[in-house]
Amino acid sequence: MKEHKTTYHLSKFAEVVFVSRPGQELYVKKIRNGTVIDHISAGHALDVLKILNIDGHEGDIVSIAMNVASKHQNKKDIVKVEGRELKPGEVDKIALIAPGATINIIREFEVTEKNRVKLPETIGGIVRCANPSCVSNAGEPVSPRFKVEKEDPLKLRCFYCARIMEKQDVLKQF
Ligand SMILES: Nc1ncnc2c1ncn2[C@@H]1O[C@H](COP(=O)(O)OP(=O)(O)OP(=O)(O)O)[C@@H](O)[C@H]1O
Ligand SMILES: [Mg+2]
Ligand SMILES: [Zn+2]
Fold this sequence. Notes:
By secondary structure, this protein is mainly β. The chain has helices at 45-51, 88-97, 167-171, and strands at 4-11, 14-20, 34-41, 62-69, 75-82, 102-107, 110-116, 122-124, 145-151, 154-158, 164-165. It is elongated.
């Protein structure tokens, strides 16, 4: 597929980007301070908004691109949120559903920090075991814990009952 990307710098604080393929043009305005979550697995932008508890009523500027062409992946989603920097717990949740995502911190219109999300070898605290008879669901002081068997497609194995959790199981809890 042929794609041309041209960036026009209109002034220090404004930029217009045209991404054109036959019959397609996209206009994106820069945010001043906030976060750009880039390289999200295609189709998962709305899951990222859910993780961030964004429903549009906060009044902040949010732009979403879904299934756009990417150099690194076939297709990707992007979420840009003005006025927000992410908390560590939110970054961990994004890592579970979008393992290749990059988190760009924007300050005064520029990318000042770029981090690729990374899953640790074990996950504790953010996901519950889906097996109702697992000891971690029995009201005992046993907190859920999983071994990351595979990042993409996601496979988590419960330390206690060996139940395998996949992306869909995890998403239901967010
Ligand atoms: N002020 C801004 N407002 C909105 N989006 C921005 C702003 N600055 C950068 N971005 C977006 O943030 C992402 C990262 O910007 P960067 O300039 O690092 O691009 P890149 O070189 O393509 O990065 P990468 O190598 O991670 O793909 C891109 O999607 C870019 O469009
Ligand atoms: Mg890029
Ligand atoms: Zn379990």
